[in-house]
Amino acid sequence: MTQRTERFPKALLAPLLALVAGLAAAQAGPDVASVDLPVTRLVLFTSGVGYFEREGVVSGEQELVLSVPRAEMDDLLQSLVLEGLDGGRVTPVRYTSQAPLGRLLEGYSLDLRGDVTLPSLLAQARGEQVVLEGATPLTGALLGVEEQRTAEGEPRAFVTLATAEGVRRVPLAEVSAVRFADPALNAELAAALATIAAHRDAHSATVRLRFEGEGERRVRVGYVREMPVWKSSYRLVLGEAGAATLQGWAIVDNPTDEELVDVQLSFVAGQPVSFVTSLYEPVWAQRPRVATEATGGVVPDLDPGRFLAAPAPAMEATMDAAARAAPQLSGAGVAAQAQGATTGVSFAYHVTDPVTIGRHESTLVPIVVTEVEARSLSLYQAGTSTTHPFHAVRLVNDTGLHLAAGTVTLFDAGGFAGNARLPDLLPGDDRLLAYALDLGLGVSVEGESEPTRVAAVALRGATLETTLLSRLVTRVNVAVHGDEGRFLVVELPAQGGYQVAAPAPRPPAAGERLRFGVAVVGADGAVPDDPDVPTHLVCRPGGACVLEVVLERLDSRSVAVANVAASDLAFYLENVELSAQDRATLERVVALQRELAEAERAVEATQARIDAIFREQERVRANLATLPRDSDLYRRYVADLDAQEDELVALRAELEERRAAHDELRRRLDELVAGIGR
Question: Which of 53, 110, 292, 408: CA 20 to 30 A from 277?
Fold first, then answer.
């Protein structure tokens, strides 16, 4: 809760208010004529911003007043550019500030931050003279608000006043209105409420740009504000022999409340880095709070601190009789109204004629009209849900322009053929645009993974290097239903680490896909081809053919020879081609490993017999403890113990011999392994 300070005596309040009013009037100064600077230039970007440029003539001292949505003030403050083209000067920019509501309310005596109730409000005003309206009006000094429960357990609030007749307690439910006796406190409460309302309703800020100087002179104001992304839309009219006409249109939206009249319009096909920094809202540094000490002291120093467009929804590129009779589209009669140019790191289209866009209106501007190379083919992408490839065109950007990403509507044989998506296309690049299903071909894909096998084994000193071969086989089945010739591009996903082993030649890659070429021979016997994708398979009319793609991956694994099991070494000796030297070495290693394994089994067998005798002796001794010493069974058990002890002596000697033999074999094997490659 904010601490209240003692208010000025009423005798001094009026003079103080008069003084404040006089200072405010003096700061306001003489009236300055306003000026209207229309928007003369607009540059739109694909990053969600637009650069607005205003230009006009001012005379003497004039002021431009801009009403800016508060949400866009950060953009304006970090991008505002002011120019006096013919002299004069621009004074500091003034704008309505925005402080957090909580900060604005801190200066009031009554704390209205958060949820305020009547009891909480009255609790802040203890000691104030209040008037309680109700059945029995009551005036007194406010002592506080308390809550009690009735006999039924219901909470009830009571207001306690110090009146001339003594201390009175009034149920809050019987109070219809509360009024402070001090008019200044009532006014302050009203001002705080007005601040809350103004903060809620203020959707825009006022920015004042003041130009000072003599005579008439030109001024320019530029700034960036949030704008809808400009969109591009293309029409591709297919011709013969790989020629086509490309029309590109820019779609512009004006969401502002200002009509843009005769504006020089530009579109930038690029994405400059754009972000919003909090500049409009005041920022207060967090300072440490140090408690006041009763005795003197010191405060210590603070501790410093080449892509493929996604195909449009599949649609059959067929036309009924009415469509075939429609007028033939050629793209004629439309001229581009923009010129392309490189601007820094981006490419811009500058509209040659001024454009007018009404408030809250949109417009469509032709920016590209040119002949382009567009070769027809069919495209199958593995992983799609269709069993048919797509009709597609290879669009070559030989326009010298940066074609911004957008939708493409294709027209063929005078009618609508389909839709496609065009990514950003730099000059000289090309893309495949899929726009309709090719029902003349059927395609299915099946794949299998072969078991991994050892391809090669080699000794590298005392290390055995094993090369493992993994194979993936994919079969693309192509069914030709008609006699129309075409070139089919089959796209299969590339597999990490795998290389194409067949077919040859090596297919080109497009992103994460591999492209294989299938020539479908037509009725005329011609074999179509493509300059960018080699032919891997030729199919005849009315038949079926199979494209088999083999991917291989080689993985190397290095293991110390001493850690390789004899069975694995034996497998390599029997199934893998080795050099004569490596074979001889591994044969010796395997022989010693087998001898060593046999010696280990002999040691283990002897030790197992010794352990069995020990267990038998424990059983016999347990039985002896329960038998009379002069019984026959007792004497028999004693004889068994004597025989077992004799056997143990022999077994211990045998165990030592077998351990020595084992250790000798281990030594010989270690020496052999250590000497490999020396």
Answer: 53
